[in-house]
Here is the input.
Amino acid sequence: MTEARSTAPQRGDSAGAEFVRAMFNLITGALSIGVAVMCLVNVFGSTIEVDRLASHTACEGQSATCQTQYTMWERTPWAHTLQLSTPAGTKSVQCQREHILVGAWHCTELGKAVTTTPSASAAPAVAFSTTAPRSVAPKGRPPEPSPSPPAPSEGDR
Here is the structure.
């Protein structure tokens, strides 16, 4: 007769394996939650610091009174890409942490001044008028009448 063997693990052998598996699951879960929190902080936090550094980077080489205005701000967990309008033109700046998710922020300009081109769906530009504009009279004086076209002569009819 054949002996029936139990497929269940022996208690002495599985206690260590269960402990290792439980510790692995605990450490993996804690690391996953920690990375998720760091990603959220990088996307939704640190806005003031990144704002200041990006403005400073975009204004390099310009006057001390350089003012910037954001035209685009793209946030990801590992970097923020911004387009800023400055007196010298529109500039693209990328800010990221020193070590992907941790460390100090630093910003670099992605290229020279970005030139904006009109969209393909934009309305065409209005053509310049060929007639001279009417003169505006100074206050207190009525405007001068526009000269009327000359009357056709007998020979032109």
